[in-house]
């Protein structure tokens, strides 16, 4: 009877534990990271008798945690991928909406500005039309600066998210290390009895960490795990956790770089942050936001450069040459702002560099790293986007020199350079922020051309001269005014073109129209011939090469058949207030191909930026959808093994309850037998 009572008792106790475990499964069905537990029953050792072995009941050998490490790792990897794509897509969508919006983008402002110029060209003396041009020009400036400011705000938002992500990651790393210690000190571990709840908590923290950054997890002694970055740099070893950090980037002070501190040693881990939210934010900054800064700046530079040049070669309502329209793209401040010295450069850090824009149409959007080696005079210029070396060489002694690139020159102005010194070269990064409107009076808009031509009253030939085209008022090599435009309000000298016969060849001489002095004589016998004229076709009168000593900054064409003795006068366009030639050329810049080596207009350049961000946004959405699908699949696979099925658990409750009741009945039978035995002795 005692044996029967004991057998019933083991059944009650064992199935009570089974009922408790099943109840625990049911109540934790919605607990994140919970793994279903299962009671494993084991027959107790029986008693040997002459008739054989008699059982002694049941015991619980283990409460097993149902988890497949492969599926758990797959969930981590897919969580890392989904976290990266979610962060990337969120930021790209915000940037895409900004650039493509009608009210927030640049397209409408550009179209309205050039439309106002076209309207002003139809009535160049109208002050209201001129005021409209200034208003629309200011709107263009405002849109450039507003977009740039939005870029800055998004950059700061990304930095804030990075800092918060680092804090969250550090909390998780500390928690994982503490759980490692608690698991390793858990009673019964040596007998294979795992602390299931602690294991679940650790796996859930690992999953949450993988949402922030890509990690590798490996098992260690004492059921602990070691956690590392993708390159093997340790994050958690046993109960010791490293700490992430952020600091101002030595290369670019406007950005953050990631650090990892462990055992008193801090290293930069920027390149190792891949996957997860932090990796997605870093990808957005490098692959979308920085290029957007550069491309918007490139458009601002090209617009300022072309408008300034065309406006400078025009004439305003007061008869003066036009000045700058937008701010000077090559002011000393602008040139020096395009180079940033690396904060880790060696002392004395006296290197002085500047970047001059030489050809805005050939300028590409991008950033470069100028690195010095050897004795500090050997240099290498590396494209940040591709990592390729695009220029290399050696500085002279003294170091003052220029490094020429398509569209810009890096000017070495002085100072000392050491091996390992680096400089970030950003030709267009800050241009959208610094653009500004210089013209502030309607009268200062240079809508007229400062030159004109007229035919002599006594001409007998059929020669016709056009009204000329302005090329420049400054020497492109020295940036100083050409002699012809050195005197305000006049051409120095005004020119008279006189034709004569030179041994059967029609040539023309140039005279100072103000005093009749000979300026240049035609010579058909010279090699090459000077100032010869070919009847019947259009002839250019002046050289267009700025290096030619006879370059005058303008060009006239003469056609027909002028007769010897015919003359034409080229002079300053005094009182030419109704002239709209320069206004038409300013308006034509709206459709002119001024970008990408003359293959793209301003509107097309901005549309290209919008399209590029749009394509990246759509691709990131596809990647996000795919990543979320993979995560759902891997999560479903894990749940099929580790998740709680309420129907299954309800069935087990009935099963264990019936077994519990049956075990209680065994004990009841044992009690009845014992009572019967007692009554037999009364």
Brief descriptors of the model:
5-stranded antiparallel sheet; 29 strands; 11 helices; elongated; 682 residues; single chain; alpha+beta
What does this entry look like structurally?
- It is elongated, with a radius of gyration of 42 Å.
- β9 (243-248) and β10 (256-262) form a beta hairpin.
- A 5-stranded antiparallel β-sheet has the order 12-19-14-15-16. A 5-stranded antiparallel β-sheet has the order 20-29-23-24-25, with no helix packed on it.
- The chain is of the alpha+beta class and 682 residues long.
- α2 packs parallel to α6 (276-312).
- The chain has 11 helices and 29 strands.
- The longest helix has 58 residues, at 127-184.
- Helices cover 41% and strands 20% of the residues.
- The model has no long low-confidence stretch (mean pLDDT 92).
Report the β-strand fraction as a percent range: 15-25%
Please report the distance between the alpha carbons of the first and last residues.
19 Å
- Helices, by number, come to 11
Q: How helical, in percent, are the residues?
A: 40-55%
Radius of gyration, Cα only, in angstroms? 42 Å
Low-confidence stretches: none
Number of strands: 29
Major sheet: order of its strands? Answer: 12-19-14-15-16
| Shape summary | elongated
How would you classify the helix and strand content by structural class?
alpha+beta
Largest β-sheet summary:
5 strands, antiparallel
Mean pLDDT: 92
Short description:
The chain is of the alpha+beta class and 682 residues long.
Q: How is the secondary structure organized here?
A:
Blueprint: H1 2-27, E1 37-43, E2 47-49, E3 52-54, E4 58-65, H2 69-100, H3 107-122, H4 127-184, H5 196-212, E5 216-219, E6 225-228, E7 234-237, E8 240-241, E9 243-248, E10 256-262, E11 265-268, H6 276-312, H7 332-337, E12 339-341, E13 352-357, E14 368-373, E15 378-383, E16 389-394, E17 401-405, E18 408-414, E19 422-425, H8 431-434, E20 451-455, E21 464-465, E22 469-470, E23 495-502, E24 505-512, E25 518-520, E26 539-540, E27 554-555, E28 557-559, E29 567-572, H9 581-588, H10 602-642, H11 646-679
Antiparallel strand pairs: 1-4, 2-3, 5-6, 6-7, 7-8, 9-10, 10-11, 12-19, 13-18, 14-15, 14-19, 15-16, 17-18, 20-29, 21-28, 22-27, 23-24, 23-29, 24-25, 26-28
